[in-house]
Amino acid sequence: MVELTPFAHRVQLISGLVAALIVLAILIVSPGIDKQALSSLEKIQKRGYINILTLNSATTYYRDIDGPNGFEYQLANWFAESIGVYPRFITVQNFNELYPELLFGTGDIVAAGLSGDESEFSRSVAYSPHYYEVSNQVLYRKFRADRPKKVIDLIGGSLKVVSGTAHVRLLSELSAQFPRLTWTEVNDIATEELIEQVETGDTDYIVADSHEIALQRRYFPELRIAFEIGEPRRLRWAYNFSDDDSLKNVIDAFFTTIEKDGRLEQLIHRYYSHVARFNYSDIRTFTQRIESHLPRYEALFKREAESVGLDWRLLAAIGYQESLWVERAKSPTGVRGLMMLTQATAKQMKVKNRLDAAESIRGGAKYIARVLKRVPEEVPEPDRTWFALAAYNVGLGHVEDARIITESRGGDPNRWIDVKQNLPLLARKKWYKKTRYGYARGWEPVKYVENIRQYYEYLTGFETRAIRENGEIKQPQEIAPLAPSL
Prior knowledge:
alpha/beta; D-Maltodextrin-Binding Protein, domain 2; Lysozyme; nine-stranded mixed beta sheet; 11 strands
């Protein structure tokens, strides 16, 4: 045994104290053994927001007349609310950027219609319970000589898919069985534009998700589904693996809850249920509605149109386009009534009951009049009216974006004939990424305006003929001159 001197003893005591302090410091600063270390969920709650990675598209996240919208947008808002934070949406430009941005970027969750079958990164992340099932569909235009019925029929034609999606992997697997099968992967455009390319003949076929095709086909009636390939896929959210299960637990609980309380089913119905397809070319249907439905509402259209300085036939044409003059109409997106007002618009126009025809028509008249006043003063009539109708459908911000694009391409931003050529560009990534309000289904307001013009002109002619047939002396109501058919 070695006996220590008093000095040596003091040194030993000091050394022991220093060592103890060092150990204590390690215990305090080391996250690996800190019992108070924050879980992945607590970190999100402490910062007050959750980063949601998504795409700017019709099935995920976009801006419409009332602001941000989309299936994934609504779903993510519910989840953020359930954990007491607000959602911070981060849109990436291309589908194949989603996984890398989640793994190496700032995302907490990817809400963009993933299934886990997309890429080599799929195995590096965790997934939520599935919330929707889709199939892989082949789309073509009906005027092709032969309808493709199986994969071998696609050989020799031009086939496109979005890069990084599960469809690429599916086609790669099929190529082992069909070596002559070829396709083009596109990275700079989204599915909506691919669908449009089938309509215009720029490609023969595409492979896309069934819900994406369902949302767009109603605007392109000549497109057809050829067949489905592969097994149906279940859509899920993706998130990073963690040392704890805190985020997993709340995500799993959230999907269980909204499935049980019916909110998930309601959301799916709102965005993806079948939308009645009206045959706008069938003038007989319109004539029948003029005789069977319009008499109930004609006085209301005239009264409310006069109160805001509109032509009543224009207001009636909007009502027919919106609901076919059905006062209790309801769409999957939640708009209701004869003028199909959203809740936000109804509140602004002080409409208490959207299903009451008088209130709905009054609200629609006041709203279109308000939009008309907001159209820039330099836009003359009748273009001013067409711009207002487009804004009534898609929002004035998107119309202004289209006017800016029109001017940049050498067109006249004050002429509908020029702007309507550029509105569809708002669905193309090359263009909407440069705009203030982002993605919009730009072809929809074009069809919307042209349909209303057709109904308006027909109502005018119908009234004129009725006056002549009745032998009345009075002349039909004076109307603003219409632009020639564009």
